[in-house]
Amino acid sequence: MMEQEHLIDLKNISKDFDGTTVLSNINLYVRKKEFVTLLGPSGCGKTTTLRIIGGFEYPTSGTVFFEGKDITAVPPYKRRVNTVFQKYALFPHLNVQDNIAFGLKIKKMSRAEIGKKVDRMLELVNLKGYGKRSVDQLSGGQQQRIAIARALVNEPEVLLLDEPLGALDLKLRKEMQLELKSMQQRLGITFIYVTHDQEEALTMSDTVVVMRDGHILQIGDPKRIYDEPANAFVADFIGESNILRGTMIKDEMVHFCNFDFPCVDSGFGENQPVDVVIRPEDIMIVGEDIGQLTGTVQSVLFKGVHYEMMIETGEYAFKVHSTVMQPQGSKVGLTIVPYNIHIMKPANDPISEEAPLE
Known about the structure:
alpha+beta, single chain, 8 helices, 34% strand
């Protein structure tokens, strides 16, 4: 990927608040027309990163580049970005149309031009005909769309979204995830999105940036983040995982639970301690006499599309997802194909890295 295709570059960004480091030397780039999600638990630094991109915070050290130009000290209103906050910040005394038009009026645009742009935005967010309504008459999802329309009408090159779906109920949140992704693709602009919700990140993003304690732990597309987590924290935070200690006997052979398992990983050396990650859906339940491991079903939960079973093997209790239920107390065999075993070095330190050039 050529350097000039980067829209935003964060170089060696650190941020301290009252002597506490909230961002520690992070490096990240965002490409044009990309949907990037900053994902992590509360306090990991994701919102601070977003605010530094938007110009609402200035880094203690490091540089922010926009299309190769240093904008570290440029105030928010001079950056080609707009922000949608979790609380929407709509003006209650203005109707929908005037809320969307607010930024255009400040720019002294003609009434006819404003009307045209507002109508286009209302159509884009599927709220055509809602212009004269009071914002108090709108549902949470509709208010969220108006906040997005108000940001987009200014034609920013980058839209920053700080947990904008947090206040919505589950069904509406899922609908809006698809709506946002579709909107971003239709508009062809860059979205940088902050969330602590793993499903949101995996559903919408081209690139996911996993953060913890002011560090970037991993950057990659959703499938890579899910299938190839960089460390135990990422594996556990993104979806559900069985994470256990093992020994890498040699390339493509790992030992755990008193059994030698073929795997596809190499380069760890011989007889080295490793962390082993296996997703619950990647464990096959087979007959007791043909499994690599045998165990007893300790509990069964119906989760809607699959059953979640805890299967005790003596060495470890595996969480297994299957569409076929095995009754509690029954003896079963477990088989794990090599491709579904992921090996990591134990207790990886947080890393700060640039996105892979994929």
